[in-house]
Amino acid sequence: MASTNVLGFVGLGVMGEPMCKNLAAKSGARVVAFDARPAPLDTLAAHGVERAASVADVAARADIVFVCLPGSPRCVPSASAPMASSGASTPAAHSWT
Fold it and tell me: What is the Cα–Cα distance from 50 to 45, expressed in whole angstroms?
């Protein structure tokens, strides 16, 4: 299995922030993240998580991107379009039903 050098994370809310922190602490990979709010990014910087400028920036820099957004239908296009425009491949798994 090929190693993953950079993990991306989009959505640092109630679930996303601790999940991202856990990836940074235990994965051994660089972690780059984006959220519309700066506070969780400020907190996670102390744990080695790099701040991305946008969803597209995460997709461009990461080998694998984790997305943790609310279950609203408006979230799918807001995450999918920037990732697709960056050249990222189709998600292998999702829970958008």
Answer: 6
Strand partners, 31: 7
Record the pTM.
0.76
Query: Hey, where are the domains in the chain?
Result: 6-85
Determine the Cα–Cα distance for residues 63 and 97; give it in Å rounded to an integer: 25
Tokens, residue 1 = 């299995």
pLDDT by residue (tens digit) across 51-69? Answer: 999 999 999 999 999 999 8
Give CATH superfamily name and number for 6-85.
NAD(P)-binding Rossmann-like Domain (3.40.50.720)
